[in-house]
Amino acid sequence: MAFEELKTDEKLEVAVPAKKGMDDLMLAGCTAFGIAAVASYLLCAWSFLLFQDTHRIESFALSALIGPLPALLASFWVGRRLDLAGVCGWIAGMMSASLFLFLRLQGMFRDAYAGVGPMPEYGDFAVWLAPLILLLAVGLAAGGTFAYRSKSQR
After folding, report:
1. 10-residue averages of pLDDT along the chain (154 residues)
2. pTM of the entire structure?
3. CA distance 126 to 65
4. Contact between 102 and 131 (Cβ < 8 Å)
5. Handedness of CA 44, 48, 51, 56 (dihedral sign)
6. DSSP annotation string for the chain
7. Cα 133 to chain centroid, rounded
8. What pLDDT sits at residue 30?
């Protein structure tokens, strides 16, 4: 008969633990990427949405302290705990937050030059310098921590 038992299965005394398959690894990586990207964007951008008068230096510094600074500190945790997908997601979210900050600052200067809004107290070099510093600081912190973790595990 074609469907009879082959009697070639060996009897195991201890169950073999299941290994993670490729689907499990892909799902974990994609989930880590997505959650890290959204979390880093929200952690960084919420303070600039909360304080609308970021044309003043004090308000801009306060927004930078309560938003991007915790994002910088959290990037050390992300680099330590999440794999490469999580770190890449964190950096992708910070790229979005840097673009948001660039457009926000550019809009303030555009309004000031058009006579609609107040002139910011800082120079227009901050339009590109602040997002660049934000992206480099947080990206290097997450990537450097991940690289250090990977090197120490070898």
Report:
1. 68 78 90 93 91 88 89 86 88 93 92 91 90 89 81 64
2. 0.79
3. 16
4. yes
5. positive
6. -TTS----PPPPSSPPPPPP-HHHHHHHHHHHHHHHHHHHHHHHHHHHHH---TTSHHHHHHHHHHTHHHHHHHHHHHHHHS-HHHHHHHHHHHHHHHHHHHHHHHHHHHHHHHTSSPPPSS-TTHHHHHHHHHHHHHHHHHHHHHHHHHHHH-
7. 15
8. 93
Q: Which two tokens stand for residue 135?
A: 């992206």
Q: What is the pLDDT of residue 78?
A: 87
Residue/partner pairs of 23-28 with CB below 8 Å, 24 or more apart: 28/83, 28/85
Q: How far apart (Å, rounded) are the C-alpha atoms in residues 5 and 25?
A: 34
Amino acid letter at 81?
Answer: R
Question: Which pair of structure tokens corresponds to residue 138?
Answer: 């947080």
d(C-alpha 43, C-alpha 97), whole Å: 9
- Per-residue burial over 97-119, b if 16 or more Cβ lie within 10 Å, else e, is bbebbbebbeebbeeeeeeeeee
